[in-house]
Amino acid sequence: MPAETRDQRRAQRIENARRWGQWLTTAMAQEGIEPKDIINGSDGTIDKGTVSHWMLGDYGASPENTLIVARVLRRPPVEALRAAGHDTVADAISSAADIPGIEALIAEARKILDPLPEDQRDQYTQDLLRQIRETGRRMRHVNTRSNTGNEGENGGQNAS
């Protein structure tokens, strides 16, 4: 598959920002939330200008800020992530939801990834999410096999 061009990435960012702004404005109206509620709920991470730009569709939100907004709006994180165009992250969260200790894993990954330059962090994040999805699939496959009555080589019969 050919690599995306800079113009394609720019067009996708513009579309994601527009879609995020529409979703955010609608969700805020439905929940009776004002920009100040998002600002206050973010513990200083998000400022008034940022919320205004989001609502106008000028800028998209990072996955981290998207999750903060989802929490303040009491909306499912995956819904917010998809609205912001972070489908890969949303897929990973959906796949990883059943993995024990996933929150601790995410916290450790952030410690490692946050100091990296954005392009490098994005690539490592994509790789990590791919690995998490694959782990989730494997775990579901193992659980499915163990729950289907596959009792071993003797077909579940007692050797007497």
Q: Could you give me the name of the CATH homologous superfamily of the largest domain?
A: lambda repressor-like DNA-binding domains
Shape: globular
- What integer value in Å does the Rg equal? 20 Å
Given the structure, what is the number of helices?
8
The CA-CA distance between the termini, in Å, is: 58 Å
The major β-sheet equals:
none
Structural class: mainly alpha
Q: Catalogue the unreliable spans.
A: 150-160
Can you put this structure into words, describing what you see?
The protein is mainly alpha-helical and 160 residues long. The protein folds into two domains: 7-85, Orthogonal Bundle (434 Repressor (Amino-terminal Domain)); 86-148. It has helices at 6-31, 35-41, 48-56, 63-73, 77-83, 87-96, 102-113, 118-146. Helix 1 (6-31) crosses helix 3, helix 4 (63-73) packs across helix 5 (77-83) and helix 5 packs antiparallel against helix 6. The longest helix has 29 residues, at 118-146. Residues 150-160 have low confidence and may be disordered.
Sequence-ordered SSE layout with sheet pairings:
Elements: H1 6-31, H2 35-41, H3 48-56, H4 63-73, H5 77-83, H6 87-96, H7 102-113, H8 118-146
Helix pairs in contact: 1-3, 4-5, 5-6, 6-8
Could you name the key traits of this structure?
single chain, 160 residues, mainly alpha, 434 Repressor (Amino-terminal Domain), 2 domains, 8 helices, 69% helix, globular, disordered C terminus
In short:
This protein is mostly helical and 160 residues long. The protein is 69% helix and 0% strand. It has helices at 6-31, 35-41, 48-56, 63-73, 77-83, 87-96, 102-113, 118-146.
